[in-house]
Protein backbone atom coordinates (compact mmCIF):
# COMPACT_ATOMS: atom_id res chain seq x y z
CA UNK A 1 0.00 0.00 0.00
CA UNK A 2 1.43 3.36 -0.96
CA UNK A 3 1.20 6.66 0.85
CA UNK A 4 -1.74 7.82 -1.26
CA UNK A 5 -3.72 4.70 -0.25
CA UNK A 6 -3.01 5.44 3.42
CA UNK A 7 -4.07 9.05 2.94
CA UNK A 8 -7.29 7.97 1.23
CA UNK A 9 -8.08 5.53 4.03
CA UNK A 10 -7.37 8.19 6.68
CA UNK A 11 -9.56 10.74 4.88
CA UNK A 12 -12.42 8.27 4.41
CA UNK A 13 -12.18 7.19 8.05
CA UNK A 14 -12.31 10.81 9.20
CA UNK A 15 -15.35 11.46 6.99
CA UNK A 16 -17.07 8.36 8.41
CA UNK A 17 -16.37 9.49 11.98
CA UNK A 18 -17.78 12.93 11.17
CA UNK A 19 -20.92 11.41 9.64
CA UNK A 20 -21.35 9.16 12.66
CA UNK A 21 -20.94 12.10 15.05
CA UNK A 22 -23.38 14.19 13.05
CA UNK A 23 -26.07 11.49 12.99
CA UNK A 24 -25.65 10.21 16.55
CA UNK A 25 -24.59 13.26 18.58
CA UNK A 26 -25.30 16.43 16.63
CA UNK A 27 -28.70 15.44 15.13
CA UNK A 28 -30.16 12.57 17.18
CA UNK A 29 -33.63 14.09 16.81
CA UNK A 30 -33.66 13.16 13.14
CA UNK A 31 -35.57 9.91 13.01
CA UNK A 32 -34.25 6.89 11.13
CA UNK A 33 -37.47 6.64 9.11
CA UNK A 34 -37.00 10.25 7.94
CA UNK A 35 -33.47 9.41 6.83
CA UNK A 36 -34.82 6.39 4.94
CA UNK A 37 -37.51 8.52 3.27
CA UNK A 38 -35.12 11.27 2.19
CA UNK A 39 -31.77 9.53 1.72
CA UNK A 40 -32.58 5.86 1.32
CA UNK A 41 -30.41 4.86 4.27
CA UNK A 42 -30.41 5.26 8.03
CA UNK A 43 -28.18 4.69 11.02
CA UNK A 44 -29.03 0.98 11.00
CA UNK A 45 -27.97 0.75 7.35
CA UNK A 46 -24.69 2.40 8.30
CA UNK A 47 -24.22 -0.24 11.00
CA UNK A 48 -24.98 -3.00 8.48
CA UNK A 49 -22.38 -1.58 6.11
CA UNK A 50 -19.90 -1.37 8.99
CA UNK A 51 -20.49 -5.04 9.80
CA UNK A 52 -20.18 -6.04 6.14
CA UNK A 53 -16.88 -4.16 5.88
CA UNK A 54 -15.60 -5.91 9.01
CA UNK A 55 -16.63 -9.29 7.69
CA UNK A 56 -14.92 -8.60 4.36
CA UNK A 57 -11.72 -8.29 6.37
CA UNK A 58 -12.37 -11.55 8.23
CA UNK A 59 -13.69 -9.89 11.39
CA UNK A 60 -16.82 -11.56 12.71
CA UNK A 61 -19.27 -9.05 14.12
CA UNK A 62 -22.87 -9.38 15.19
CA UNK A 63 -25.55 -6.92 14.19
CA UNK A 64 -25.72 -5.68 17.80
CA UNK A 65 -21.94 -5.17 17.93
CA UNK A 66 -22.02 -3.20 14.68
CA UNK A 67 -24.89 -1.04 15.89
CA UNK A 68 -23.08 -0.32 19.14
CA UNK A 69 -19.97 0.67 17.16
CA UNK A 70 -22.02 3.11 15.10
CA UNK A 71 -24.43 4.39 17.76
CA UNK A 72 -21.73 4.63 20.43
CA UNK A 73 -23.92 2.70 22.89
CA UNK A 74 -26.26 -0.27 22.78
CA UNK A 75 -28.94 0.32 20.16
CA UNK A 76 -31.81 -0.28 22.59
CA UNK A 77 -30.47 2.46 24.86
CA UNK A 78 -30.03 4.96 21.99
CA UNK A 79 -33.47 4.08 20.63
CA UNK A 80 -35.12 4.63 24.02
CA UNK A 81 -33.44 8.04 24.33
CA UNK A 82 -33.92 9.37 20.79
CA UNK A 83 -36.25 7.32 18.61
CA UNK A 84 -40.01 7.75 18.53
CA UNK A 85 -42.69 5.60 16.95
CA UNK A 86 -43.26 6.34 13.28
CA UNK A 87 -46.36 8.36 12.54
CA UNK A 88 -48.88 7.22 9.95
CA UNK A 89 -47.61 10.03 7.70
CA UNK A 90 -44.01 8.84 8.03
CA UNK A 91 -45.02 5.26 7.29
CA UNK A 92 -46.94 6.37 4.17
CA UNK A 93 -43.99 8.48 2.99
CA UNK A 94 -41.63 5.56 3.63
CA UNK A 95 -43.82 3.21 1.58
CA UNK A 96 -43.97 5.75 -1.25
CA UNK A 97 -40.20 6.19 -1.18
CA UNK A 98 -39.73 2.41 -1.29
CA UNK A 99 -41.97 2.17 -4.35
CA UNK A 100 -40.16 5.05 -6.06
CA UNK A 101 -36.70 3.66 -5.33
CA UNK A 102 -36.86 -0.14 -5.03
CA UNK A 103 -33.68 -1.86 -3.99
From TrEMBL:
<protein>
    <submittedName>
        <fullName>DUF1244 domain-containing protein</fullName>
    </submittedName>
</protein>
<dbReference type="InterPro" id="IPR023163">
    <property type="entry name" value="SMc04008-like_domain"/>
</dbReference>
<feature type="domain" description="SMc04008-like">
    <location>
        <begin position="30"/>
        <end position="95"/>
    </location>
</feature>
<dbReference type="InterPro" id="IPR036810">
    <property type="entry name" value="SMc04008-like_sf"/>
</dbReference>
<dbReference type="Pfam" id="PF06844">
    <property type="entry name" value="DUF1244"/>
</dbReference>
Amino acid sequence: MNETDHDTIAIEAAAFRRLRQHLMQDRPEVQNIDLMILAGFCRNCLADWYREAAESRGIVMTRDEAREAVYGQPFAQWKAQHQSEATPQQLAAFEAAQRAHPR
